[in-house]
Amino acid sequence: MAEEGERKAALEVQADGTDGNCVTFVLHDEDHTLGNSLRYMVMKNPDVEFCGYCITHPSESKINFRIQTRGALPAVEPFRKGLNDLMGVCQHVLNTFERSMKEYRAQREEEMQ
Fold first, then answer.
1. Which Pfam families does the UniProt entry name for this protein (predicted)?
2. Phi-psi region of 2 (alpha: psi -120 to 50; beta: other; left: phi over 0)
3. Which of 1, 21, 75, 101 has the fewest Cβ atoms nearer than 10 Å?
């Protein structure tokens, strides 16, 4: 267990074999919110043969996230792309929400006058 003041790594990588096509990423302090969203984004890649995750135990906030790719593509590439794509989707949702809130507040202000 990490001592007070120490931070444990947010990500561990466990590779099977030497080619890097089948990798388990261990994500600390995460749950189904990230796990299922990231799995969806990674599975959109046609070079990904398998992608899944599991929560090790309900009392732990740790995800085992496994990716297996076809061909010579290392598993870390679709993982990185999935994270970047998910960040883009989240940014789009945030921008849309903020724009809608701004329009709503302007409309309410006009109604009050």
1. RNA_pol_L_2
2. beta
3. 1
Q: Give me the count of residues in the chain.
A: 113
Task: Please name which of 8, 100, 51 lies closest in space to residue 108, comparing C-alpha atoms.
Answer: 100
Helix (H, G, I), strand (E, B) or coil at 54: strand
Are the C-beta atoms of 54 and 63 separated by less than 8 Å?
yes
Q: Which residue has the tokens 């990185």?
A: 80
Evaluated on CA atoms 32, 37, 41, 44, the torsion sign reads: positive
8-39 pLDDT, tens digit each = 677 777 776 667 899 999 999 999 999 999 99
Q: Are 51 and 43 in contact (CB under 8 A)?
A: yes
Give the Å distances, CA to CA, from 72 to 51, 54, 79: 16, 25, 15
Q: Quick one: tokens of 89?
A: 């989707």
Question: What is the C-alpha separation between 9 and 4, in angstroms, rounded?
Answer: 14
